[in-house]
Amino acid sequence: MNNLIIKFGPIAALFIAWFYTYYQGILTAVNIWGNSEIFNHCFFVIPIAFYLIYQKRHELSRQPFVANYWLLLPIIGTLVLYTFGSVGDIRLFMHVATFVSLPLLIWFVIGNKAAQVIAFPLFFILFSIPVGEQLIPFLQEITTDMAVPLLELTGIPVYRNGLYLEIPEGRFLVAEACSGISFLITSIVFGHLYAYISFKTLPKKLLFILISLIFPILANALRVYGIVLIAHLTDMEHAAGADHLIYGGVFFAIVLFSLIMIGEKMRDKFDADKSGKETSNATVAVDEKALVVSNKLVMFSIFLFVTQIFWYSAIVNEQSSLTNNELIVDIKTLPLVVKEQNLQRWQPEFSTASNIQQGIIIGPYAVGSEYSASQQVENIDFFIASYQGGEGELISAANKLYNEQRWTLIQNRSVNIDEGSEARLIKIVSPIGQYRYILYWYQLPDKAFTNKVKLKLYQTWMAMFGQTEQSAIIALSFESEQNIEAVINSLSAKASIIQNSIKD
């Protein structure tokens, strides 16, 4: 027992220290793995990686463990990134730092030669990072772009309206679930694992990985085409609900089976024999010496983890708490005729906001503005969600400018309001073909942002120094069939008034 503690105690202490330091990153990642079917496979990634390492135990036992001190730089970098992500609640940064730090830490303590033996298992750990959902809009577009020509080639009349496909029998939406993101991510992970197990040469490995990337995209477009074709042939009797889900599950199994068949065709006939001989030789040459890491390295690594924990606690304790409840913009004080009321047809979701102003800006401008009351200007919906004193999160995946179940995004562009001022204009469409435009920007007391990533990074950077600021999202919207330039003129005129009032 004492010998086991001496041999494996430092390694266990190192993993415990890593787990404790990155606990929040691990916990939030596991929540995503369990709640999103896109990332269910992540539960198996680390167990598979450690099993692959276990298979290499004989080769590892013959390698000297000489620490690579240069890896201290990226390890410290992951601790900084994790702290930054924790302060700003940027989950992607937390997850990247968490699951990049683990293989780096192993590499650091065992050294280059030993790490080279288990290079792929260490790399495979990176697939634990729940990332890839950002590709969904692009995959939706690609799937729709590919499905439409297939339908037309088959002679099925189809009208495309954004991500909606209309055939005589009904309407289909290429929704997020139809993007094939689950197919793609799982296929890529499987492709890497299969290539590592089945092929010896790098060109074949890279070729199979490329196939595992392209094949599910093509297959998913064929799946969407097949669902619409079935709907056309059965008059919508077998094209929705449970049938739709069954087609997806069955098709996914077919995709994986097809990849295995492709891999088997590519496999060298002698690979299995060579692999067996190598395994046999490795077994004969077993070195029984223990896999021991330096206690000094373990203690130093733990010291780095403890330093990060104290650093994060200091940042949180130093963050100032604003008590100023004055709004960045009060719609009632502007030279606009407004009617505050709950929005009906357009309903943004910012549930954690400190204050919400919403309603209608009535047609013409107020008396005294550069426009006369005789001019006919369409009523415009407005929505302002304010966050004060560091309360809530302005940039959050839970916040939505529109209900994605009712509207589909078809355009997103930048618009110049005044000289040096910008906003984002998005165009969305409803299932019945109604178009709505939304002009919006993010506002701080002395800065305006149109890019939510830049705003999030700026807010987090300020929070690292214990500073929080008031923030708000300001959005103007209306349904219109006008051309894009007329829409921009209508919305930007009122946006200019709001922005100028903030500057004043």
TrEMBL record:
It is a multi-pass membrane protein. It holds the Pfam family Exosortase_EpsH. It comes from the Bacteria. Residues 345-484 form the Methanolan biosynthesis EpsI domain. The chain crosses the membrane at residues 12-32, 38-54, 66-84, 90-110, 117-136, 172-194, 206-233, 245-262, 297-315. The keyword Transmembrane applies. Keywords: Cell membrane, Hydrolase, Membrane, Protease, Transmembrane, Transmembrane helix. Its main location: membrane. It is found in: Cell membrane. NCBIfam families: 8TM_EpsH, EpsI_fam, exo_archaeo, exosort_XrtA. This is EpsI family protein.
